[in-house]
Amino acid sequence: MEWNTLATRLFGAGHGIRADGDFLHGTAVFDGQTIAVAGTTNHAPIGVALALAQARVVLDTVRLHPGRPLLLLIDTQGQQLRRRDELLGINRAMAHLGTAIDLARRRGHRVLGLVYDQALSGGFITSGLIADACYALPEAEIRVMRIPAMARVTKLPEAMLATLSQANPVFAPGVGNYVAMGGVRALWEGDLPAALRQALADTPTEDRRAQDGAERGGRRLAAAVAQRVLDAA
What is the DSSP code (8-state) at residue 218? Predict the structure, then answer.
């Protein structure tokens, strides 16, 4: 879905969100409450500039508007694979964005991620996956690594990984698999304002992704292993 269509369905035609190139930012009023919005469009690769621009929206919201909810609109092909960004320290810029989101959560801001188009790799990990919860539209595309790339990293045959992906969401791309694993809390279908309203009211502030993954059968061991580590600490 095109970002302006999404914003109009959520907030009406008078929303205050705008695009500066691939960077989305602004505010919108929802049920009488102002919501800060940051994000990306056009399948943007997240480089140093985009990461820092999004972090600035988050930090300005924390500084100037305590408690204001934040909505992260996600459409990215992942991190920018360019020498310039590597030399400028893209890893630190993306870590800064993730840290800013974590700070907002700790300061009492409700932070929601919404994958409305595409979410790949590090551009997704340092935004939607650090929010209180990440949601997605049914037509969204989510993956961290394609099976050929996974085969190169794990040294396992592509055919084996393709077979595993049929029964195990951990090895498979797709928004449904991320719901099963708990990475995506729920899909927003039909009445989008109602979905946002429910998310603002019901999203837990503690990280429930491992528990959700266990309950949904997509990540059967993560929650139990984490609890064993906590018990042994």
Answer: S
Range of the domain at 97: 3-205
CA distances (Å), origin 75, targets 10, 42, 128, 233: 17, 7, 10, 39
Give the separation between CA 139 and CA 155, rounded to whole angstroms: 31
CA–CA gap between residue 11 and residue 87 (Å, rounded):
39
Q: How many domains does the chain have?
A: 1
Residue 103, domain member (yes or no): yes
Assigned domain for 158 exists:
yes
Residue 100 domain-assigned (yes or no): yes
Cβ neighbours around 127 below 10 Å, total: 29
H helix or E strand, kind and range, residue 123: helix 121-125
Q: What is the pTM of this model?
A: 0.90
DSSP symbol at 180: H
Q: Which tens digits make up the pLDDT trace of 87-98?
A: 999 999 999 999
Whether residue 222 lies inside any domain: the answer is no
pLDDT digits (tens, 9 = 90+) for 39-65: 999 999 999 999 999 999 999 999 999
